[in-house]
Amino acid sequence: MDKFLELKTLLKKDLYLNFIAPLKKPSKRGGSFKALSVFGLAILFIYLGFLYLMLILAFIIPMAKNGMSNTVLMAFFGFVSIGVLIFTSANIISKIYYSKDVEILLPLPIRRNNIYLSKILGSALPSLVISFIIFVPMVFPLIRFANLSFLKFFSIIFLNLSNIIFTILILSTLLILFMRAFAGIGGLKNLLQTLGSIIIICVTLLPQIMNRSENSSIFNENNLVHFIKLLFPQVHLLNKIYGMSDLPAFSLSFFILIAMAIILYVLSFPLSKIMIAGVLKTNVQSSRVWHSRENKNTSIVLSLAKKDVVNVLRTPVYFFNLASASFMLPFFILLSFFKRRENISIVQNFFDNIEIYGFDKINLFFAFMLTVFFYAAFMTPLSLTSITREGKNIYIMQTLPIAYEDQVSGRLLGSTIFQVVSTLPIIIFLSYLTKFNILYILSMLCGAILGSYASSSFGIFFGIKYPKLNWENPQDAVKRNFPVFIFGILNMIAIALNAFLFYLIFKNLGSIIVFKFIATFYLALAILLSTAIKNQAKISLKENLPEYDSYF
C-alpha cells in the first residue's frame, strides 16, 4: 500500500508543478492566482470549443448520419495517438533529462519505478483529460444517429485509456533507450528541439499543403483510415470491438485496459533503471560544457542584447516559435503568386506606373512605411518572453550589479534588432515587386525599425508584469504561455483598430496631404508612447524583481 501512496504523492507533485504552479501569482505572500492566466485559459477554452463545435456540425454529425461512426472513432483514436506523440515527447525528455527533479529525488528512499511512473503518467494525463473532453460532445451525435449504447460508451472509454497507455509506453521506451545511448552528446538538446519544432510546423502546414495540392483527392476517407491503421495498429481493436455486442465488447475492452496497466507497471522496473542511467550520464556530460567568456570591453546594454538574441538563435524551440511568422507569411504570399505567375508582373507594372493612379513616390513611401510598421509590430517580440526565458535562473539577476535601466534597454535593443532582421524576408519580397527601388527600401526599413521598437517596448513591459518562470520545457516559455497568448490577442486587436482608423480617415478625407500628415503624427506618437512604456517597464522591473524568487 505504501508504494501506491508514494506514487500518488509523486504524481500529485508533478501535476501541481505542471498545471497549478504556473497559474500562481509571483508574490512572497503566495496563494493567489494570476487573473490574466485564468482569463487566458477561459478565452482559449471558448475559442477551441467554438472550433470543435464547427467540426461537429460540419463533419461528425453528417458522418454519423451516413453510418460512418466507426470511421469517426478510428480517426479520433488516431489523432489522440498523434497528439500524445507530438506534445508528450518534449515533456518526457525535459522533465526527466533536462530538469533537476529526478536528480533531487534519487538520493531519497523512493522506489525508482515510481519516479518513472509519476513522470510518464504526469505527461500522459493532459492527453487523457483533453481526449475525454473531446470525446464527450462526440457521444451525443453517435447516440442519436449511430445508436451508441451505454456499455459500448464505456467500452470506447476503456479502449481510449488503453490506447494512451500503449502509445505512451512505446514512446517512453524509445525515448529512454535513445537518451541512454546518446545523452550528454554536445548539441543533442538543440537537435531535439529543432526536430520537434520542424515536426510541429509540418503538422501545422500539412492541411494547407494538402488543400492546395493537385493530388489532394488521394487523401480520401479510405486512404485516411488505412493510414491511421498502418501508423497505429491498435485502432484495429476498435474496429473489431465496436462491431461486437455490448457485454462482450465491454468485458474485452476492460480486460485490455487492465492488461495494459499491468504491462506498464511490470516494464517500469527495467525502464526506470535505464532512465536513471541516462539521467546520470546527462548530468556528468553537461557539467563539462564549455562556456565562452563575455568581452569585458562590451557595454552592459550590448552584452544583454547579444545574450538575448544568441539565446534564441541557439535554442530552436525559441527560434521557431518567435521567428516562424517572418518566413511563413512570405511563403504563403509566394505560394499564392505562384499559382498565377503573371500576377507578379501585374504588381510590378502597377508600381512602375503609380502616377497614373494619382499617387507619387512620396505617397508610396508612407504607404510602405506604415505597412511594414504594422507588420513588424504584429510579430511576437523577443522582449515579451525575455524575463520568462530566464526561468529558474531569475535569481541571478538579483545578484548582478546591473542597473534596472540597463536591463530593460539591453533586452529592448536585442528584441528590436531581432524583429528588424525578421522583417527582412517580407522587405526583400516587396523590394522585388518594386524592382528594388532605393526610396521604398529605405521607407520599409524605417517602418521595420519603428514598428519593432514599439512592439518590443510594449512587450518588455508586459513580459516584466506577467512572467511565467516555473517551466521545465522551453515550449512552455514561448508557446504554452497565456500572457503571450493575451498579448497576441491585444496586439491583433490594436493593429486591426489602427488599420481600420487609417482606412476611415483616407476614405472620408480623401486627401493624400492630410493622410501623410496624420501618418507622420501617428508614428511620432507611437514612438513617444513606446518610450514612456519603456520607462514604465524599468519601474515595474524594480518593483517585481525582488518577488520573482517566490516561485522557488
TrEMBL record:
Protein name, as recorded: ABC-2 type transport system permease protein
Source species, domain of life: Bacteria
Keyword annotations of the record: Membrane, Transmembrane, Transmembrane helix
Transmembrane segments: 35-61, 73-94, 115-136, 156-179, 191-210, 247-267, 317-338, 364-387, 408-432, 438-464, 484-506, 512-533
Keyword Transmembrane helix: yes
Keyword Phosphoprotein on entry: no
